[in-house]
Specification:
Blueprint (H helix, E strand, L loop, with lengths): L13 E4 L4 E5 H9 L4 H11 L1 H5 L1 H4 L2 E6 L2 E8 L1 H8 L8 H19 L2 H13 L4 H23 L6 H15 L3 H8 L14 H20 L4 H11 L3
Antiparallel strand pairs: 1-2, 2-4, 3-4
Length: 241
Amino acid sequence: MPNIKLFEQKQIRSVWNEADKKLYFVVEDVVAALTDSSDPKQYVKRMKQRDLELAKGWVQIVPTLSVKTPGGKQKMSCANAQGLLRIIQSIPSPKAEPFKLWLAKVGQERLEEIENPELAQTRMREIYKAKGYSDEWIEKRVRGIAVRDELTNEWKKRGVKEGIEYAILTSEISKATFGLTPSQYKSYKGLTKQQENLRDHMTDLELIFTMLGEAATTEIARNKDAQGFPKNEKAAVEEEL
């Protein structure tokens, strides 16, 4: 989400959805913050009446999730960042305008990156640089992304399914490389938020070891012509030997 200080004095409740590994936000809280409505439920109802396309896709982008409240957990309408941006497009409020402008800017940049893929890497480097990472670390992080893409492309060609099977194989590589699963490693690093990226908190040396583990797994899978999940899992385990 854009770094716009619109919610400083508003509580936006959120919940981690383990099903798709994404952070979701309570829709009513966002609507209340952007509109100052005293009855956000009614506002949402009127919004869907105005925007029929949004209403048709509401169930897909706004699941009902259990959210912690002072009175215990309650089922509430929630949306992830992508869903919220779609909802915000239908809010005719001055407070929503910065989000709309930011979304238009991101859309323009994405179209530019499709035309010129090198722009995506340049912008990624700029983001990491702004966060205080060194040029040397950024080079290793960018290279690590390329190595990871090569591995997942190989898995895809060999019949490994995205999602749970990718996660299991990644866990095997991590255990072979560091002796810890990714979740254990995040705990070791003190990362408590599910959405925090472990690799963004790795040292230069840790990034190098990660690249070596994934590159070795790719090479083993190719040499053994591993097909399907079980054989690729064996290739991931063999990377330890």
